[in-house]
């Protein structure tokens, strides 16, 4: 007989430990919620009024229900309570409906708060929360099936592979086992999303034909790629090489993963059949104007992404005006560099884009040279930040290549924030699919936008800001602010002297021209009945885009209506507010303080940001 306890004290301690383990076993969510709240205390300032407490709770509550979010945030320490690291989210239509019922309770409670009884910061939070909730409610109730899950741009079928290869941690043996379990989960979530896709079809909502064609190509690649060359396999092999696992255990795990990838491929083959079937009913027109109630849907999308009441016509005309102005600036530089600007600008852009001086060798070596140049630009940009910002993030950003399996339909560059615990660094991804789409003189502007002082600076500061409530930091997001800031950051970098020659200035202006042209083509496609080809040609003729880049971008705007308008609308507002503050404050204006107002109060609709800047001006007058 084994003696477990040698004293009464030991017996009591053992009994308490046993009781604790039983409670954990039968009610792990109670402890997980408590641990999450404790963790949140280190991320944000505690809420001090009833509204902010309610809003903070609305942020925390769904996190435990979403395994992918827990992993993305880096909450690895909760896994012993949640087992989230072996799971994927619930994508079923039933879960979405259940979540909406919970949301309606939140919506009702939110609208019961008396704004007059709240402190000033909470009044702003109430305005933002009501704006966001109103959009969410309308979107679910009127336009639930308008966005498809299997689009060629960031589609769910790509998301799960990206999530496993880029987000799931492989630090130890348990992580490796969880990786295999998660790959085995993918067929379940694909089945759930296929139900959504079928409901979408039953509602008479289909995508344009090219969406199905490109998604089918992506699915074919993920099905037909040999298992030993599959991204899910290669990522796992690379990860377990760094883990202390016996040779036999590794071999056993690899066999299990191979079986999981076989099931993955079977699932994706079933999905491919559904996509093929729906492609037979592909809608004739590209713009959402052709969908049932499409005009109203597009108004809704513009409100989401601009946080204004600007109409499609107003945005379209603003875009046309800006395109003309920026083109004039570019022509002036080209004239000074000896170009004949009587030649159509589109032809001059082709000449610039194909000039060997500005291109890289089409090889692995050339692609690595691009990444190295981006790293150099990023390091040089860090050096000027203290002259323009009171606060700088501790988290750094690295440069990575867009995964090869998704690069053909991905954007030219995109940013992914770091995990909250810092275990996964922030990264910005450069698309190297068509190496001739990367010209040296365009590279600084893209780096400024995606890394610093653009997305990384703004997002990392928001993530690290301990003076905001949890909801201020994570409860609301809008492209009008985040993309508006990143485009503003490009202009700030020019003002800081980071553009070193006339061609880089042309590259920066082309970036601005690109965003101005987006105002034209997005509204052209979705409100003025432009075709995909008309929009592609407009971008090539007016923004200097090569065919592959223009095609990828236009196809993105088609499946993501309204989002492309957010960049320039947000940038215009931030610049307008800066000029207002300069004019009103004169010598008392500080660029660092202005940036603190913009960046250190969370992500905001442009109307709320304007109110905060006006308050800053009044306080410093």
Automatic annotation (TrEMBL):
Name by which UniProt lists this protein: DUF885 domain-containing protein
Top-rank taxon, per record? Bacteria
Organism for this UniProt entry:
SAR86 cluster bacterium
